[in-house]
Design goal:
Two copies of one chain form a homodimer. With about 170 residues, chain A is α/β, with parallel strands linked by helices. The first copy, chain A, has eight helices and six strands, in the order E-H-H-H-H-H-E-H-E-E-H-E-E-H. In chain A, strands 3-2-1-4-5-6 form a six-stranded parallel β-sheet.
């Protein structure tokens, strides 16, 4: 039986930073460089985070992470893949999120997608996520996907992945 | 620690039949009485099921099941409640479904809601559902909520619940 792997959306499949960096100045007239974000929680780095992600179909038009299509296909063939997103906090994002996934990764069936509030309710063997709050409650093998906000975390319980090109080597 | 209970939406919290019965004649000019639906799968009883449920914000305006507010509140206090709906098959239903839940059961937090394709991926102790396809794959205690389509099922593995007024006695 294939092992079950749960894969996060925002910050793992969908690259949210270019759009956050582009939109934050619309609210506060300051510009942020990617380097300035290292080690800073998104809610601090982007004071208008909630307004940005809840407006203008934010989640429908994000770019995908480099090499994620090929590498997700590789995982899809080797594992039982579930795409799990803590989407409930942004109540109107779900229809857009599902449409985005179906467009960018057409080999994924909608039955493989889960929108929830807490990821510890899902039974699985492996998780790939960028947020320690999701990784820390998971009982299986935990991979932390590098994003600016988590770059200074050095927890021996997590295996770090610096991009989708590394995934076919590690998993 | 509280036991975790997963509760279905359509056919358990939301009463879908009055709206299905009202809308089907818009497509095929025949009228259906509730009695005629007994033991018939919804997809046979309502030949235009997919068109009905994917149009006119079907899921946003459903009536709630009788006594479900008080009884869900009772469960919410006694158990760790998750509302789990196999919503992915109707891609544009999720925003409406979440808004409907928040309106009718305001004590439920959005973190307690899960939209998924398959319910067997959720770790829980108890399930209340009207569909054998969800009950049969569940490992814990299984309650079948009476709806016309399941009324002839007599499976000793399921405890039958005939309405929310029975739930406070049984659970």
């Amino acid at each position: 039986m294939k092992k079950r792997i749960i894969i996060d959306m925002d910050g793992v499949l969908a690259n949210i930073y270019p759009t956050l960096i582009a939109r934050e100045p619309m609210y506060n007239n300051t510009n942020t460089t990617p380097e300035e974000l290292n080690g800073i929680p998104d809610s601090i780095a982007f004071p208008n985070l909630y307004e940005i992600v809840t407006s203008d179909h934010f989640f429908r038009n994000l770019p995908e992470m480099n090499n994620s299509q090929e590498a997700l296909k590789y995982l899809h063939e080797k594992y039982e893949v579930l795409i799990v997103s803590a989407a409930m906090e942004f109540a109107n994002s779900m229809n857009d999120k599902l449409a985005w996934l179906m467009e960018h990764y057409p080999f994924i069936r909608c039955e493989q997608v889960v929108f929830c509030g807490r990821k510890d309710i899902i039974e699985a063997d492996i998780i790939i996520d960028d947020h320690p709050k999701n990784l820390s409650v998971f009982k299986g093998k935990r991979y932390i996907f590098t994003q600016p906000h988590n770059i200074k975390i050095n927890d021996p319980d997590y295996i770090r992945i610096n991009g989708w090109d590394e995934i076919t080597q590690l998993l």
